[in-house]
Amino acid sequence: MKKTIIILFMLFIASSVFAQTKLYDIVFVKANDIAAYDQYLEEQFSKIHQKRIDEGMLLQWDVWKVVDNPQEDFTHMITYIFDIDKYGESINPQSYLGMTDRQWQIMQQDVSGIRTRVGQVKWNDLGSARKKGVNYLPEIMVLNFMMLKNDQWETYEQAEINATKSIGNNSVRVGWNFHRRIDDYGTDNYFSHVTVDWFDQYKDYLKLGMGPLTDASKENQDWNELRELKKRVVMQKLISLGN
Question: pLDDT tens digits for 101-134?
């Protein structure tokens, strides 16, 4: 029994260390021809990143599309998940597609004409929770951009983790993740952390706002002392490789 407990503890430590070695490289894209860009993602770029995953250079590659929000400043969010030790390894993407350098250049020019990269950030993984039986990547992501207040890093991060240690079986929300932004910091940045609420269907998310509302509780007022919700964006999964 003692040996079993030790083994389980070692596995827990190993999984925690591995989680801390994951790097999330996030690219925000504004497509002016969404259908054409989706086609490039599905028919060309997915082949490149599947081969990177197969070769152990990349852990996961996901593409998310903004739902019902044409006024948002991006249309797609592309997530590259790396083992930090593999980040930055050089690749020759045209070779994965059997293209010459000239063919690759022409394709890149075409892609540049239908989309603009409007932002890139990096974050790590601080915590997560899943509804019982949810061992898949859900269809709907609700991304909450948070800005820390008064440099209360430890207090805020521990409060978020403690608040969502589990998700009840009756909840329409099926998962939750918490990330800290680890790239450039400065006075112009509007978020320091993100939380992600996961749903199986878009209508499940909408149901949350359809019931009766109450005044803010003391607990919610305490949250407002720690962080400010800057923006919320709902996205639907387009492609997921490696999960």
Answer: 999 999 999 999 999 999 999 999 999 999 999 9
Q: What are phi and psi of 158, to 5 degrees?
A: -70, -35
The pTM (predicted TM-score) of the whole model is 0.87
- Domain 21-120 fold is Alpha-Beta Plaits (3.30.70)
What token pair was written down for 156?
């805020």
C-alpha distances (whole Å) from 123 to each of 38, 54, 81, 193 are: 25, 23, 10, 8
Check residue 134 and report its DSSP letter: -
Output the CA–CA distances (angstroms, integers) from residue 77 to 125, 126, 193, 232, in the order listed: 17, 20, 16, 13
Instruction: Please name the residues in contact with 190: beta carbons below 8 A apart, sequence gap of 6 or more.
Output: 145, 147, 230, 231
| CATH 3.30.70.100 describes domain 124-240 | yes
